[in-house]
Design goal:
This protein is an alpha/beta fold and 475 residues long. Helix content is 33%, strand content 19%. It binds flavin-adenine dinucleotide. Flavin-adenine dinucleotide binds next to helix 1, helix 2 and helix 15.
Length: 475
Amino acid sequence: MMDRDYDVIVVGGGGAGLAAALMASAQGASCIIVEADGKLGGATAQSGGVFYAAGTQVQRAAGIMDDTPQALYDYLMTLNRWKMRPDLVRYYAEHAAEALEWLMELGTEFPEQWLVRSGVDSVARGHSSQGAGSGIADALINAAGAKGIETAYGSRVEELLFEDGRVVGIRAAGAELRAPTVIITTGGFGNNPQMLQRLYPSAACHGDWTWAVHKDVPFVLGDGINLAESIGAAVVGHDCGLLLPTSGFSKSLEAFLPPWIIAVNKEGSRFMSELSPYSVCGYLLNEQTERRAWAIFDEQALVQASTNTKYLDPYNAGISIPTWEEPTLREQVRKGRVKVANTLRELAEQVGIDGIALEQTAAVYNRDCANGCDSQFFKQAPAYFPVQQAPFYAVEIRSAIIGLTAAGLDIDSQARVLDGHKRPIPGLYAAGEVLGCFQGERYGGGGLSIGNAVVFGRLAGIEAARDALANPEGA
Ligand SMILES: Cc1cc2nc3c(=O)[nH]c(=O)nc-3n(C[C@H](O)[C@H](O)[C@H](O)COP(=O)(O)OP(=O)(O)OC[C@H]3O[C@@H](n4cnc5c(N)ncnc54)[C@H](O)[C@@H]3O)c2cc1C
């Protein structure tokens, strides 16, 4: 018989780990959260707090009566050309509303007036929480405290105990803890440059430009991937994740491009509506020649649009884009990062793009601005700013801010971690950003990552507890 200190050990106390621990405890399992950091919450606590779900009471309160899990499922599968795991997407679609309403019971508020269309779908499914990420994390942390769930802080798990083909515990800070089930909820790996090279090369390729929005969350290092891989777990979802566009001036979160620029590639052509949501924008930008493009604008746009606050948060998302304010841009002109010239042809020469094509692109765009309609990409801008009054400016832009990583562990529909032959590794479960099998090649919309953490965290907690309680003798 195996010694057991707990029925369930949860490795990492962010959104997924807290949800898992609460559900495991609700099944009657004894449980501990082992957390590397000095506090709980992880990236979840620092996030924007948007949760993606369909068919919720919040939507109904906002007058959206006809959204369904089926519609959410169809949207995600279609967006990813069915290159997603139907079983996991289906599970998500059918359980996201329940998970959101569970968070509401724990105290998170999702005001109906803050619902947003956070993807490229036609219905508002992005539920923004009061207090952003801490509104979600605090509710979970308080609930875990009220349930008396134990937490070991400052305990970075460095090894899984693996005996006779089963995970039987963990080692952290030189000490062993034993349990018949372990749930890995260590989050993503955006702060680990080596792992980015290996698992997210289209982010790593931008060198010094690349950084993760998780930069202030110290253990977003992919430990859970290494821990599970070392005992034979498969790693899937290579090169998947979300990249956001940036000028690279600073490490400020800029989720969107401003509406008053045109984005052109090396060939001197526009390639998207500059107002494209991030399910589109970052991916398209990263597909251009040399994986970069240039934001082009003129003096009038710089003076009028960049100082107008209504253009700083085009989505009313509460995320402004500080890079694109006049003082910053003028400072970057002085530093030589923003190029300036009296003609578009000269500007193109400075940045190394096709000048004849750029003039042609600007001519078409300027005509469209005069007509009030973008005939190429149908950008729905609040106002159009032609590119016609010298001097002209060019800012290099790249998709180099990591919004989330989506390569990682593979699970089955019971959240059991799979090996390279798609066999569950006995005793091992996972949920949240550590997974590589859920998001697919194209992130469906804001809220799917916290959604992943809470929906699959809950599932992992239930399944691990059942497994542990069904095996009273241990392994
Ligand atoms: C600024 C920002 C804004 C975001 N906005 C949104 C949004 O609005 N909507 C959305 O869906 N997503 C958003 N995201 C992404 C989302 O927050 C995360 O993908 C999600 O919260 C991950 O949850 P998780 O529980 O898997 O990981 P985390 O919440 O990151 O938790 C992982 C925990 O594991 C711990 N850990 C790591 N390694 C070890 C180890 N070896 N031993 C013990 N503990 C360990 C970490 O310290 C951490 O506490 C945002 C992220 C950031 C940073």
